[in-house]
Amino acid sequence: MTDVNTFSHPILITGGAGFLGSHMVALCLEKRIDLVVVDNLSNSDLSNLQTLEKHFNVTIPFFNIDIRDQDKLKDFFNEHRFSAVIHFAGLKSVAESVANPDLYHDNNVVGSQNVIDCIKAQGIKNLIFSSSATVYGDPQYLPIDEDHPVQPYNPYGETKAQVEELFIQDEYFKTASVKLLRYFNPVGSYKCIIGEKPNGMPNNLMPYILGVARGEYDFLNIYGDDYETDDGTGVRDYIHVTDLMEAHWSALMDDVIGCEIYNVGCGKGFSVKEMVKAFEEVNQVKIPYQIQPRRDGDIATCYAAVDKIKNHLNWSAKLNLESMCRDAWSVNS
Ligand SMILES: NC(=O)c1ccc[n+]([C@@H]2O[C@H](COP(=O)([O-])OP(=O)(O)OC[C@H]3O[C@@H](n4cnc5c(N)ncnc54)[C@H](O)[C@@H]3O)[C@@H](O)[C@H]2O)c1
Description:
Elements: E1 11-14, H1 19-30, E2 35-39, H2 47-56, E3 62-64, H3 70-79, E4 84-87, H4 94-99, H5 101-122, E5 126-132, H6 155-169, E6 177-183, E7 185-187, H7 205-213, E8 220-223, E9 235-236, E10 238-240, H8 241-253, E11 258-264, E12 270-271, H9 272-283, E13 289-292, H10 307-313, H11 321-330
Parallel strand pairs: 1-2, 1-4, 2-3, 4-5, 5-6, 6-11, 7-10, 8-13
Antiparallel strand pairs: 9-12
Helix pairs in contact: 1-2, 1-8, 3-5, 5-6, 9-11
Bound molecules: nicotinamide-adenine-dinucleotide.
Nicotinamide-adenine-dinucleotide binds near residues 18 and 19.
């Protein structure tokens, strides 16, 4: 078990202005851990970090760097030392990745290789990478455990699988503590003060529901109601972002050497229609929807086996669907 007092340098949080990264910043500030954020603000702005600065009465060191910019990234690592790196920076829209796979490869894979090169040059040994359940593609069995074949169904998932391999195949990481966390579907907000604020049209379900609830969109498009699920709409494993960050904390504190992969989810699936119903009931807001054809790259059902992370890192999700819907809306309403 890592002792936080052994962190002689800050933790680097790449993508720290985004939805999940800013929640990790919040957790570190709560635990009084020094941190530095790198982000190019391509899918975020500074508002979450500014809110946290006010809330915690601190200044968050922020560097506007694109991780694809190798020279700038190298200079940055030459000027700062880190005890750990949590690598969230990346593009995450399945639909956009289908339309522009080269952008996704360049941003997510080439960008991550640059981060990895800098990590190795500095000799950092405590690392977490944001992977995704998307690497599993269309599940061969449910719940999906970490031994399930990796067979991504879209270019976004392919980039995540490729970056996992960059860590797994590299001899350097056999001497480091590396956690590849395959998130399922994070929703909710930190203490209802920061939340998800994507630039432009949301791609994930919850931010889209929030947009409809705020009146920005007239209705929710549900892509496909003819999947082989109970109500025909896609089933996913949702996890409260507070639980997800606690999983990161457990991963950061675990000092077992080697690359380990963990699913991070609740271990239960909910359909799109169930999510809409839960959101409406908890928040007393109507979410009109229209059924559209299936979207390229989407699958019917996906939920996690979560025994490994419970057994190894002693972590399991605590917050239920009602908390996720309530907390997501409370920061957005
Ligand atoms: N939210 C999810 O549903 C989910 C699920 C599984 C995995 N993930 C992964 O978790 C990570 C964080 O996701 P999120 O929901 O916070 O997304 P987000 O878009 O809110 O945050 C990602 C951040 O990375 C930044 N970024 C993107 N490309 C960059 C680049 N080239 N250089 C520097 N910064 C860059 C963006 O500006 C953004 O602030 C991503 O890697 C994503 O693929 C997210």
